[in-house]
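User: quick one, sequence for these C-alpha coordinates?
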Protein backbone atom coordinates (compact mmCIF):
# COMPACT_ATOMS: atom_id res chain seq x y z
CA UNK A 1 0.00 0.00 0.00
CA UNK A 2 1.66 3.32 -1.10
CA UNK A 3 2.37 5.73 1.77
CA UNK A 4 1.64 9.42 1.16
CA UNK A 5 2.65 12.32 3.41
CA UNK A 6 0.27 15.30 3.18
CA UNK A 7 1.73 18.64 4.35
CA UNK A 8 -1.09 21.17 4.83
CA UNK A 9 -1.68 23.77 7.55
CA UNK A 10 -5.42 24.04 6.85
CA UNK A 11 -7.25 21.37 8.85
CA UNK A 12 -10.19 21.47 6.44
CA UNK A 13 -7.99 20.96 3.36
CA UNK A 14 -6.01 18.28 5.18
CA UNK A 15 -9.10 16.25 6.07
CA UNK A 16 -10.44 16.62 2.54
CA UNK A 17 -7.22 15.23 1.07
CA UNK A 18 -7.13 12.44 3.63
CA UNK A 19 -10.68 11.34 2.76
CA UNK A 20 -9.97 11.37 -1.00
CA UNK A 21 -6.74 9.40 -0.76
CA UNK A 22 -7.77 6.87 1.90
CA UNK A 23 -10.92 6.08 -0.09
CA UNK A 24 -8.60 4.91 -2.91
CA UNK A 25 -6.54 2.64 -0.63
CA UNK A 26 -3.55 4.90 0.07
CA UNK A 27 -2.00 5.07 3.53
CA UNK A 28 -2.01 8.74 4.55
CA UNK A 29 0.07 10.53 7.15
CA UNK A 30 -0.14 14.27 7.81
CA UNK A 31 2.02 17.16 8.95
CA UNK A 32 0.81 20.76 9.53
CA UNK A 33 4.12 22.42 8.57
CA UNK A 34 7.47 21.83 6.86
CA UNK A 35 9.43 21.24 10.07
CA UNK A 36 7.27 18.34 11.21
CA UNK A 37 7.11 17.00 7.67
CA UNK A 38 10.91 16.73 7.52
CA UNK A 39 10.94 14.94 10.86
CA UNK A 40 8.42 12.39 9.61
CA UNK A 41 10.44 11.83 6.41
CA UNK A 42 13.54 11.09 8.46
CA UNK A 43 11.61 8.67 10.68
CA UNK A 44 9.80 6.59 8.02
CA UNK A 45 9.83 6.01 4.24
CA UNK A 46 7.15 7.57 2.04
CA UNK A 47 6.27 7.02 -1.61
CA UNK A 48 4.96 10.53 -2.26
CA UNK A 49 4.74 13.96 -0.61
CA UNK A 50 1.75 16.26 -1.30
CA UNK A 51 2.62 19.71 0.04
CA UNK A 52 0.89 23.07 0.17
CA UNK A 53 3.06 26.00 -0.96
CA UNK A 54 2.01 28.57 1.66
CA UNK A 55 2.75 27.36 5.19
CA UNK A 56 3.49 29.07 8.53
CA UNK A 57 7.19 28.14 8.93
CA UNK A 58 8.72 27.35 5.51
CA UNK A 59 7.20 27.42 2.04
CA UNK A 60 6.47 24.30 0.04
CA UNK A 61 9.38 25.27 -2.25
CA UNK A 62 11.79 25.25 0.71
CA UNK A 63 10.43 21.89 1.89
CA UNK A 64 10.80 20.43 -1.61
CA UNK A 65 14.37 21.70 -1.90
CA UNK A 66 15.34 20.10 1.43
CA UNK A 67 13.73 16.81 0.44
CA UNK A 68 15.50 16.74 -2.94
CA UNK A 69 18.91 17.62 -1.50
CA UNK A 70 18.91 15.10 1.33
CA UNK A 71 20.46 11.73 0.37
CA UNK A 72 17.78 9.74 2.14
CA UNK A 73 14.75 11.49 0.63
CA UNK A 74 15.90 12.86 -2.72
CA UNK A 75 14.11 10.09 -4.62
CA UNK A 76 10.69 10.80 -3.03
CA UNK A 77 8.38 12.51 -5.54
CA UNK A 78 7.04 15.88 -4.37
CA UNK A 79 3.79 17.37 -5.68
CA UNK A 80 3.07 21.02 -4.82
CA UNK A 81 -0.50 22.20 -4.22
CA UNK A 82 -0.74 25.82 -5.36
CA UNK A 83 -2.83 28.43 -7.13
CA UNK A 84 -0.27 28.71 -9.97
CA UNK A 85 -1.16 32.41 -10.16
CA UNK A 86 2.22 33.42 -11.65
CA UNK A 87 4.38 31.66 -14.31
CA UNK A 88 7.30 32.10 -11.91
CA UNK A 89 5.61 29.50 -9.70
CA UNK A 90 6.52 26.89 -12.32
CA UNK A 91 10.17 28.03 -12.33
CA UNK A 92 10.35 27.97 -8.56
CA UNK A 93 9.05 24.41 -8.67
CA UNK A 94 11.63 23.42 -11.31
CA UNK A 95 14.40 25.03 -9.28
CA UNK A 96 13.53 23.16 -6.10
CA UNK A 97 13.01 19.84 -7.93
CA UNK A 98 9.21 19.47 -7.69
CA UNK A 99 7.83 16.56 -9.68
CA UNK A 100 4.41 18.06 -10.35
CA UNK A 101 1.83 20.74 -9.56
CA UNK A 102 -1.85 20.39 -8.72
CA UNK A 103 -3.87 23.59 -8.84
CA UNK A 104 -6.25 24.59 -6.07
CA UNK A 105 -9.18 24.19 -5.97
CA UNK A 106 -8.67 20.68 -7.30
CA UNK A 107 -11.08 18.09 -8.60
CA UNK A 108 -10.85 14.79 -6.67
CA UNK A 109 -10.72 12.63 -9.80
CA UNK A 110 -8.01 14.77 -11.35
CA UNK A 111 -5.93 14.70 -8.16
CA UNK A 112 -6.11 10.91 -8.01
CA UNK A 113 -5.21 10.67 -11.70
CA UNK A 114 -2.03 12.72 -11.14
CA UNK A 115 -1.06 10.83 -7.96
CA UNK A 116 -1.43 7.42 -9.64
CA UNK A 117 0.54 8.63 -12.67
CA UNK A 118 3.46 9.84 -10.55
CA UNK A 119 3.59 6.65 -8.51
CA UNK A 120 3.46 4.52 -11.67
CA UNK A 121 6.29 6.55 -13.26
CA UNK A 122 8.38 6.18 -10.14
CA UNK A 123 7.89 2.42 -10.15
CA UNK A 124 9.03 2.21 -13.80
CA UNK A 125 11.83 4.76 -13.62
CA UNK A 126 15.37 3.43 -13.66
CA UNK A 127 17.58 4.12 -10.66
CA UNK A 128 20.19 6.88 -10.80
CA UNK A 129 19.26 10.49 -11.41
CA UNK A 130 21.25 13.54 -12.50
CA UNK A 131 22.21 15.75 -9.57
CA UNK A 132 21.48 18.96 -11.49
CA UNK A 133 20.08 20.17 -14.77
CA UNK A 134 20.84 22.96 -17.25
CA UNK A 135 20.80 26.72 -16.61
CA UNK A 136 17.91 28.39 -18.45
CA UNK A 137 16.74 31.99 -18.64
CA UNK A 138 13.22 33.27 -18.00
CA UNK A 139 12.42 37.03 -17.97
CA UNK A 140 16.12 37.77 -17.60
CA UNK A 141 16.48 35.43 -14.63
CA UNK A 142 18.89 32.49 -14.63
CA UNK A 143 17.37 29.28 -13.25
CA UNK A 144 19.29 26.10 -12.52
CA UNK A 145 17.09 23.01 -12.90
CA UNK A 146 17.72 20.29 -10.33
CA UNK A 147 15.21 17.84 -11.88
CA UNK A 148 16.36 15.42 -14.56
CA UNK A 149 15.08 15.57 -18.16
CA UNK A 150 12.32 13.03 -17.61
CA UNK A 151 11.06 14.93 -14.60
CA UNK A 152 11.16 18.21 -16.52
CA UNK A 153 9.10 16.73 -19.35
CA UNK A 154 6.67 15.25 -16.84
CA UNK A 155 6.34 18.61 -15.13
CA UNK A 156 5.88 20.59 -18.34
CA UNK A 157 3.27 18.16 -19.67
CA UNK A 158 1.53 18.21 -16.30
CA UNK A 159 1.56 22.01 -16.32
CA UNK A 160 0.14 22.08 -19.86
CA UNK A 161 -2.55 19.61 -18.81
CA UNK A 162 -3.29 21.76 -15.76
CA UNK A 163 -3.66 24.89 -17.91
CA UNK A 164 -6.01 23.13 -20.33
CA UNK A 165 -7.98 21.66 -17.43
CA UNK A 166 -8.17 25.07 -15.69
CA UNK A 167 -9.45 26.75 -18.87
CA UNK A 168 -12.09 24.07 -19.30
CA UNK A 169 -13.09 24.42 -15.65
CA UNK A 170 -13.24 28.22 -16.01
CA UNK A 171 -15.57 27.84 -18.98
CA UNK A 172 -17.74 25.40 -17.02
CA UNK A 173 -17.94 27.85 -14.10
CA UNK A 174 -18.94 30.71 -16.42
CA UNK A 175 -21.59 28.54 -18.05
CA UNK A 176 -22.89 27.44 -14.65
CA UNK A 177 -22.97 31.05 -13.38
CA UNK A 178 -24.87 32.17 -16.47
CA UNK A 179 -27.35 29.33 -15.96
CA UNK A 180 -27.79 30.31 -12.30
CA UNK A 181 -28.38 33.94 -13.25
CA UNK A 182 -30.99 32.90 -15.80
CA UNK A 183 -32.64 30.63 -13.23
CA UNK A 184 -32.72 33.60 -10.84
CA UNK A 185 -34.42 35.80 -13.43
CA UNK A 186 -36.96 33.08 -14.17
CA UNK A 187 -37.61 32.59 -10.45
CA UNK A 188 -38.20 36.33 -9.94
CA UNK A 189 -40.57 36.42 -12.90
CA UNK A 190 -42.41 33.35 -11.63
CA UNK A 191 -42.75 34.86 -8.13
CA UNK A 192 -44.05 38.13 -9.55
CA UNK A 193 -46.66 36.31 -11.65
CA UNK A 194 -47.55 34.04 -8.72
CA UNK A 195 -47.99 37.04 -6.41
CA UNK A 196 -50.17 38.77 -8.99
CA UNK A 197 -52.37 35.70 -9.43
CA UNK A 198 -52.70 35.24 -5.66
CA UNK A 199 -53.43 38.92 -5.01
CA UNK A 200 -56.20 39.11 -7.60
CA UNK A 201 -58.62 36.84 -5.67
CA UNK A 202 -57.51 38.31 -2.34
CA UNK A 203 -58.55 41.83 -3.39
CA UNK A 204 -62.33 41.19 -3.69
CA UNK A 205 -62.21 39.04 -0.55
CA UNK A 206 -60.72 41.85 1.54
CA UNK A 207 -62.99 44.59 0.18
CA UNK A 208 -66.07 42.37 0.59
CA UNK A 209 -65.05 41.71 4.20
CA UNK A 210 -64.89 45.46 4.76
CA UNK A 211 -68.49 45.72 3.53
CA UNK A 212 -69.60 42.83 5.74
CA UNK A 213 -67.92 44.36 8.78
CA UNK A 214 -70.03 47.51 8.33
CA UNK A 215 -73.14 45.32 8.35
CA UNK A 216 -71.90 42.74 10.85
CA UNK A 217 -73.93 39.60 11.58
CA UNK A 218 -76.14 39.87 14.63
CA UNK A 219 -75.13 36.57 16.21
CA UNK A 220 -71.84 36.19 18.15
CA UNK A 221 -70.95 33.14 16.05
CA UNK A 222 -71.45 35.12 12.85
CA UNK A 223 -69.26 37.98 14.08
CA UNK A 224 -66.60 35.51 15.22
CA UNK A 225 -66.62 33.75 11.86
CA UNK A 226 -66.28 37.09 10.05
CA UNK A 227 -63.29 38.06 12.22
CA UNK A 228 -61.66 34.68 11.57
CA UNK A 229 -62.06 35.00 7.80
CA UNK A 230 -60.65 38.54 7.82
CA UNK A 231 -57.60 37.50 9.88
CA UNK A 232 -56.86 34.61 7.55
CA UNK A 233 -57.23 36.72 4.40
CA UNK A 234 -54.82 39.31 5.81
CA UNK A 235 -52.46 36.49 6.81
CA UNK A 236 -52.51 35.16 3.24
CA UNK A 237 -51.79 38.66 1.97
CA UNK A 238 -48.75 38.98 4.26
CA UNK A 239 -47.45 35.56 3.16
CA UNK A 240 -47.59 36.69 -0.46
CA UNK A 241 -45.73 39.89 0.44
CA UNK A 242 -43.02 37.96 2.33
CA UNK A 243 -42.63 35.50 -0.55
CA UNK A 244 -41.94 38.30 -3.02
CA UNK A 245 -39.92 40.51 -0.66
CA UNK A 246 -37.67 37.63 0.46
CA UNK A 247 -36.60 37.01 -3.11
CA UNK A 248 -36.18 40.70 -3.95
CA UNK A 249 -34.11 41.39 -0.82
CA UNK A 250 -31.62 38.63 -1.64
CA UNK A 251 -31.13 40.21 -5.09
CA UNK A 252 -30.91 43.81 -3.85
CA UNK A 253 -34.10 44.86 -5.64
CA UNK A 254 -35.91 46.57 -2.73
CA UNK A 255 -35.72 50.37 -2.58
CA UNK A 256 -36.84 52.43 0.37
CA UNK A 257 -39.06 55.52 0.32
CA UNK A 258 -37.25 57.38 3.07
CA UNK A 259 -38.76 60.13 5.22
CA UNK A 260 -38.23 61.52 8.70
CA UNK A 261 -40.71 59.80 11.00
CA UNK A 262 -41.52 59.35 14.67
CA UNK A 263 -40.56 55.72 15.31
CA UNK A 264 -42.26 55.80 18.71
CA UNK A 265 -45.61 56.68 17.14
CA UNK A 266 -45.14 54.08 14.40
CA UNK A 267 -44.45 51.37 17.00
CA UNK A 268 -47.53 52.30 19.04
CA UNK A 269 -49.82 52.38 16.00
CA UNK A 270 -48.50 49.11 14.59
CA UNK A 271 -48.80 47.32 17.92
CA UNK A 272 -52.34 48.67 18.30
CA UNK A 273 -53.27 47.32 14.85
CA UNK A 274 -51.86 43.88 15.71
CA UNK A 275 -53.35 43.66 19.20
CA UNK A 276 -56.42 41.80 17.91
CA UNK A 277 -54.19 39.04 16.51
CA UNK A 278 -52.52 38.51 19.88
CA UNK A 279 -55.80 38.74 21.78
CA UNK A 280 -57.25 36.03 19.53
CA UNK A 281 -54.15 33.88 20.29
CA UNK A 282 -54.71 34.33 24.04
CA UNK A 283 -51.59 36.46 24.55
CA UNK A 284 -51.10 39.56 26.71
CA UNK A 285 -49.45 42.40 24.78
CA UNK A 286 -47.51 45.14 26.61
CA UNK A 287 -46.19 48.16 24.70
CA UNK A 288 -43.60 50.51 26.24
CA UNK A 289 -42.44 53.54 24.25
CA UNK A 290 -40.96 56.93 25.20
CA UNK A 291 -43.40 59.78 25.72
CA UNK A 292 -41.32 62.00 23.43
CA UNK A 293 -40.80 61.30 19.70
CA UNK A 294 -37.95 59.05 18.54
CA UNK A 295 -36.96 60.40 15.13
CA UNK A 296 -35.51 58.10 12.47
CA UNK A 297 -35.19 58.29 8.71
CA UNK A 298 -36.83 55.35 7.04
CA UNK A 299 -39.65 53.85 5.04
CA UNK A 300 -42.75 53.82 7.24
CA UNK A 301 -44.36 50.96 5.32
CA UNK A 302 -41.25 48.78 5.56
CA UNK A 303 -40.63 49.51 9.25
CA UNK A 304 -44.25 48.65 9.97
CA UNK A 305 -43.66 45.40 8.09
CA UNK A 306 -40.64 44.68 10.32
CA UNK A 307 -42.66 45.02 13.53
CA UNK A 308 -45.62 43.12 12.05
CA UNK A 309 -43.37 40.19 11.20
CA UNK A 310 -41.81 40.16 14.67
CA UNK A 311 -45.24 40.23 16.33
CA UNK A 312 -46.51 37.49 14.02
CA UNK A 313 -43.47 35.40 14.94
CA UNK A 314 -44.09 35.94 18.67
CA UNK A 315 -47.76 34.99 18.30
CA UNK A 316 -46.82 31.86 16.36
CA UNK A 317 -44.39 30.48 18.92
CA UNK A 318 -46.00 31.56 22.20
CA UNK A 319 -48.75 29.44 23.74
CA UNK A 320 -52.04 30.73 25.13
CA UNK A 321 -51.60 32.61 28.39
CA UNK A 322 -48.15 33.85 27.35
CA UNK A 323 -46.89 37.42 27.19
CA UNK A 324 -45.41 39.54 24.42
CA UNK A 325 -43.63 42.77 25.32
CA UNK A 326 -42.76 45.47 22.79
CA UNK A 327 -40.25 47.98 24.14
CA UNK A 328 -38.69 50.99 22.40
CA UNK A 329 -35.80 52.98 23.89
CA UNK A 330 -33.44 55.59 22.50
CA UNK A 331 -29.88 56.29 23.65
CA UNK A 332 -26.43 57.10 22.21
CA UNK A 333 -27.77 57.88 18.74
CA UNK A 334 -29.66 54.59 18.41
CA UNK A 335 -33.27 53.47 18.67
CA UNK A 336 -33.59 49.99 20.16
CA UNK A 337 -36.81 48.10 19.49
CA UNK A 338 -37.27 44.74 21.21
CA UNK A 339 -40.04 42.17 20.92
CA UNK A 340 -39.79 39.64 23.75
CA UNK A 341 -42.05 36.66 24.35
CA UNK A 342 -42.47 33.91 26.93
CA UNK A 343 -42.83 31.23 24.27
CA UNK A 344 -41.05 28.02 23.37
CA UNK A 345 -37.60 29.57 23.03
CA UNK A 346 -34.88 28.79 20.49
CA UNK A 347 -32.13 26.17 20.67
CA UNK A 348 -28.54 27.18 19.97
CA UNK A 349 -28.40 25.43 16.58
CA UNK A 350 -31.49 27.22 15.26
CA UNK A 351 -30.41 30.54 16.76
CA UNK A 352 -27.24 30.54 14.67
CA UNK A 353 -29.10 30.23 11.35
CA UNK A 354 -32.39 31.90 12.27
CA UNK A 355 -32.15 34.82 9.84
CA UNK A 356 -31.58 32.74 6.71
CA UNK A 357 -34.20 32.60 3.99
CA UNK A 358 -36.59 29.61 4.25
CA UNK A 359 -35.21 28.71 7.72
CA UNK A 360 -37.93 27.21 9.91
CA UNK A 361 -37.78 26.44 13.62
CA UNK A 362 -40.72 24.02 13.32
CA UNK A 363 -39.70 21.04 11.16
CA UNK A 364 -42.35 18.63 12.40
CA UNK A 365 -44.60 16.96 9.87
CA UNK A 366 -47.76 18.40 11.35
CA UNK A 367 -46.46 21.97 10.72
CA UNK A 368 -48.72 23.24 13.50
CA UNK A 369 -47.27 26.73 13.38
CA UNK A 370 -47.19 27.06 9.59
CA UNK A 371 -45.05 29.66 7.86
CA UNK A 372 -42.52 29.52 5.07
CA UNK A 373 -39.37 30.59 6.93
CA UNK A 374 -39.39 34.03 5.26
CA UNK A 375 -40.60 36.50 7.89
CA UNK A 376 -37.37 36.89 9.86
CA UNK A 377 -35.25 36.92 6.71
CA UNK A 378 -37.34 39.84 5.47
CA UNK A 379 -36.93 41.58 8.85
CA UNK A 380 -33.13 41.34 8.71
CA UNK A 381 -32.96 42.48 5.08
CA UNK A 382 -35.22 45.51 5.64
CA UNK A 383 -33.45 46.56 8.85
CA UNK A 384 -30.03 46.40 7.17
CA UNK A 385 -31.35 48.50 4.27
CA UNK A 386 -32.14 51.15 6.91
CA UNK A 387 -28.54 51.05 8.15
CA UNK A 388 -29.50 49.11 11.26
CA UNK A 389 -29.01 45.62 12.64
CA UNK A 390 -31.27 42.83 13.86
CA UNK A 391 -30.42 40.26 16.53
CA UNK A 392 -32.07 37.38 18.37
CA UNK A 393 -31.45 35.93 21.81
CA UNK A 394 -32.88 33.04 23.80
CA UNK A 395 -31.80 31.13 26.89
CA UNK A 396 -32.95 27.92 25.24
CA UNK A 397 -36.07 25.80 24.70
CA UNK A 398 -38.97 26.80 26.93
CA UNK A 399 -37.28 30.07 27.97
CA UNK A 400 -38.80 32.50 25.49
CA UNK A 401 -36.98 34.69 22.97
CA UNK A 402 -36.16 38.33 22.35
CA UNK A 403 -35.68 39.96 18.96
CA UNK A 404 -34.03 43.37 18.80
CA UNK A 405 -33.79 45.94 16.04
CA UNK A 406 -31.37 48.88 16.23
CA UNK A 407 -31.70 51.93 13.98
CA UNK A 408 -29.75 55.19 13.88
CA UNK A 409 -31.77 58.10 15.27
CA UNK A 410 -32.06 61.63 13.88
CA UNK A 411 -31.93 64.97 15.66
CA UNK A 412 -35.12 66.71 16.75
CA UNK A 413 -36.68 68.49 13.73
CA UNK A 414 -36.98 72.26 13.75
CA UNK A 415 -40.02 73.64 15.51
CA UNK A 416 -43.04 73.98 13.27
CA UNK A 417 -44.52 77.36 12.50
CA UNK A 418 -46.86 78.63 15.16
CA UNK A 419 -49.37 79.75 12.54
CA UNK A 420 -52.70 77.96 12.97
CA UNK A 421 -53.36 75.17 10.53
CA UNK A 422 -56.07 75.65 7.98
CA UNK A 423 -59.31 73.89 8.75
CA UNK A 424 -59.63 70.63 6.79
CA UNK A 425 -61.85 70.82 3.75
CA UNK A 426 -65.23 69.23 3.99
CA UNK A 427 -65.34 65.74 2.49
CA UNK A 428 -66.41 65.89 -1.13
CA UNK A 429 -68.47 63.39 -3.08
CA UNK A 430 -66.22 62.24 -5.92
CA UNK A 431 -66.68 60.52 -9.22
CA UNK A 432 -64.56 57.37 -9.11
CA UNK A 433 -63.95 55.20 -12.18
CA UNK A 434 -62.84 51.62 -11.53
CA UNK A 435 -61.10 49.91 -14.46
CA UNK A 436 -60.86 46.21 -13.58
CA UNK A 437 -61.45 43.12 -15.72
CA UNK A 438 -62.13 40.90 -12.69
CA UNK A 439 -65.83 41.55 -12.13
CA UNK A 440 -65.79 40.25 -8.54
CA UNK A 441 -62.94 42.64 -7.69
CA UNK A 442 -64.66 45.53 -9.48
CA UNK A 443 -67.98 44.84 -7.76
CA UNK A 444 -66.59 44.56 -4.23
CA UNK A 445 -64.46 47.68 -4.71
CA UNK A 446 -67.49 49.56 -5.98
CA UNK A 447 -69.43 48.65 -2.82
CA UNK A 448 -66.64 49.96 -0.57
CA UNK A 449 -66.32 53.22 -2.51
CA UNK A 450 -70.07 53.79 -2.42
CA UNK A 451 -69.99 53.19 1.34
CA UNK A 452 -67.45 56.03 1.47
CA UNK A 453 -70.12 58.24 -0.15
CA UNK A 454 -68.73 58.43 -3.68
CA UNK A 455 -70.33 57.94 -7.09
CA UNK A 456 -68.76 54.94 -8.86
CA UNK A 457 -68.72 53.49 -12.36
CA UNK A 458 -66.80 50.44 -13.60
CA UNK A 459 -65.19 49.46 -16.90
CA UNK A 460 -63.75 46.03 -17.63
CA UNK A 461 -61.15 46.67 -20.37
CA UNK A 462 -58.55 49.27 -21.27
CA UNK A 463 -60.50 50.81 -24.21
CA UNK A 464 -63.76 50.86 -22.20
CA UNK A 465 -61.99 52.63 -19.35
CA UNK A 466 -60.68 55.40 -21.59
CA UNK A 467 -64.07 55.86 -23.28
CA UNK A 468 -65.79 56.08 -19.88
CA UNK A 469 -63.25 58.64 -18.71
CA UNK A 470 -63.83 60.78 -21.84
CA UNK A 471 -67.62 60.87 -21.40
CA UNK A 472 -68.04 60.79 -17.60
CA UNK A 473 -65.04 62.95 -16.53
CA UNK A 474 -64.13 61.18 -13.23
CA UNK A 475 -62.22 62.81 -10.37
CA UNK A 476 -60.37 59.59 -9.56
CA UNK A 477 -59.45 56.57 -11.68
CA UNK A 478 -58.50 53.29 -10.01
CA UNK A 479 -57.07 51.03 -12.71
CA UNK A 480 -55.74 47.51 -12.82
CA UNK A 481 -52.61 46.99 -14.93
CA UNK A 482 -53.35 43.67 -16.64
CA UNK A 483 -56.38 44.51 -18.78
CA UNK A 484 -57.81 43.27 -22.07
CA UNK A 485 -57.47 45.58 -25.07
CA UNK A 486 -54.46 47.43 -23.69
CA UNK A 487 -52.89 47.58 -20.24
CA UNK A 488 -53.36 50.02 -17.40
CA UNK A 489 -50.21 51.95 -18.31
CA UNK A 490 -51.74 52.82 -21.67
CA UNK A 491 -55.02 53.71 -19.91
CA UNK A 492 -53.10 56.24 -17.78
CA UNK A 493 -51.23 57.69 -20.77
CA UNK A 494 -54.42 58.18 -22.79
CA UNK A 495 -56.41 59.68 -19.90
CA UNK A 496 -53.57 62.15 -19.26
CA UNK A 497 -54.01 63.37 -22.85
CA UNK A 498 -57.78 64.05 -22.44
CA UNK A 499 -58.42 67.82 -22.08
CA UNK A 500 -59.99 68.70 -18.73
CA UNK A 501 -58.71 65.63 -16.87
CA UNK A 502 -55.35 67.14 -15.94
CA UNK A 503 -56.33 67.25 -12.25
CA UNK A 504 -57.77 63.73 -12.11
CA UNK A 505 -56.02 61.42 -9.66
CA UNK A 506 -54.85 58.15 -11.22
CA UNK A 507 -54.04 55.20 -8.98
CA UNK A 508 -52.73 51.85 -10.19
CA UNK A 509 -54.42 48.98 -8.36
CA UNK A 510 -52.44 45.86 -9.21
CA UNK A 511 -50.94 42.61 -8.02
CA UNK A 512 -47.47 43.69 -9.22
CA UNK A 513 -45.57 45.64 -6.57
CA UNK A 514 -41.87 45.79 -7.49
CA UNK A 515 -39.92 49.03 -7.73
CA UNK A 516 -39.81 48.62 -11.51
CA UNK A 517 -43.61 48.31 -11.56
CA UNK A 518 -43.92 51.52 -9.54
CA UNK A 519 -41.46 53.32 -11.80
CA UNK A 520 -43.39 52.25 -14.90
CA UNK A 521 -46.57 53.50 -13.29
CA UNK A 522 -45.08 56.91 -12.53
CA UNK A 523 -43.75 57.24 -16.08
CA UNK A 524 -47.20 56.38 -17.48
CA UNK A 525 -48.87 59.08 -15.35
CA UNK A 526 -50.14 57.31 -12.21
CA UNK A 527 -50.12 59.34 -9.00
CA UNK A 528 -50.35 56.30 -6.70
CA UNK A 529 -49.46 52.61 -6.78
CA UNK A 530 -51.64 50.39 -4.59
CA UNK A 531 -50.78 46.70 -4.33
CA UNK A 532 -53.70 44.28 -4.16
CA UNK A 533 -55.41 43.62 -1.89
CA UNK A 534 -55.54 47.35 -1.14
CA UNK A 535 -56.47 48.24 2.40
CA UNK A 536 -59.70 50.32 2.49
CA UNK A 537 -57.87 52.88 4.67
CA UNK A 538 -55.29 53.34 1.90
CA UNK A 539 -58.10 53.89 -0.59
CA UNK A 540 -59.67 56.44 1.75
CA UNK A 541 -56.39 58.38 1.96
CA UNK A 542 -56.05 58.49 -1.85
CA UNK A 543 -59.62 59.76 -2.19
CA UNK A 544 -59.19 62.26 0.65
CA UNK A 545 -56.20 63.74 -1.14
CA UNK A 546 -58.25 64.23 -4.31
CA UNK A 547 -61.08 65.72 -2.30
CA UNK A 548 -58.72 68.33 -0.86
CA UNK A 549 -57.39 69.14 -4.34
CA UNK A 550 -60.92 69.45 -5.65
CA UNK A 551 -62.04 71.63 -2.74
CA UNK A 552 -59.18 74.07 -3.30
CA UNK A 553 -59.75 74.36 -7.02
CA UNK A 554 -61.09 77.71 -8.25
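Assistant:
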Amino acid sequence: MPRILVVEDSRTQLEQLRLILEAEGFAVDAAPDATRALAKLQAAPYDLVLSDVLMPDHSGYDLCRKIKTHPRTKGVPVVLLTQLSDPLDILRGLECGADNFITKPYDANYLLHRVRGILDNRARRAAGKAESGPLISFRGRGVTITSDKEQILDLLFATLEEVVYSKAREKEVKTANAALAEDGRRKDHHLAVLAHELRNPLAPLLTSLHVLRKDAPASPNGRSALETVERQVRHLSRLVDDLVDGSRLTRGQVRLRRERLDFSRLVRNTAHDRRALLDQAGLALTVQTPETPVWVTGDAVRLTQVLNNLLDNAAKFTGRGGRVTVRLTAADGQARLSVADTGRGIDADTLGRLWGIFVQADRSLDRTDGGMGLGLSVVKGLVELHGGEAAAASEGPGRGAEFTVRLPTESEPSALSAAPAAAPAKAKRLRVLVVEDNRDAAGSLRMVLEMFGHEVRAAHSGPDGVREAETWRPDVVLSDIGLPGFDGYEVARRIRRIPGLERAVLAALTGYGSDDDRRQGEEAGFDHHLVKPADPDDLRRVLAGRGERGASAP
